[in-house]
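Data card: per-record layout.
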Amino acid sequence: MDTLAILKRGPVMPVMVIQSVDEALQVTRALLEGGINTFEITLRTPAALDGVRELVNAFPQALIGVGTVRDAGQLEAALQAGARFAVSPGLPAALLPALAANQVPFLPGVATPTEAMNAFDAGFAAQKLFPAEAVGGVPLLKSLHSPLPDIVFCPTGGIHAANAAAYLALPNVACVGGSWLAPADLVLAGDWQAITALAATALAQARQA
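The structure for this 209-residue chain is written out next.
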């Protein structure tokens, strides 16, 4: 499965910062019940890689990826944990040999037209616009479509329930990423039904975009 096919599995990809393995299992189960099937687990906590291992084993129907990958060591650790794809906030040159050696689906982050063209020239036609809202959001993506029609984006950063549909309506957006599907207050409260409802609502809104 290539990166674009992964993005097209669903219009919304939750970006998850997990504090424990149990939390990862509970949140992922709730999101799956709401119809989400692709997940980015960020390498921002000590529990991330253990969480990935457990999620891969517990939910074979889900596509589990790892985000915030910044170097070859993190990429290798993510793959050993069972990650099916990797996401980065950028495209550091030091990552390129490891990506070529592993042939793993990879979503590099870009924020400008030059970065988008450089990533495309490196072989990445599917890219993450990050941080999307901060760098121009919907107007920027509209402007990029005409000169860069062969690049498809997954905007992440500042995406939420109120603006996701505007992004998904764009011809060069395959999906959006964000953390609003599993907000910290609902996770802390253990309100898994509310998270399932948020996921189902997000998918219903996406289909209308």
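Known properties of this structure: The chain has eleven helices and nine strands. Strands lie at 12-16, 38-42, 63-67, 85-87, 106-107, 109-110, 126-129, 152-153, 176-178.

See the next section for split statistics.
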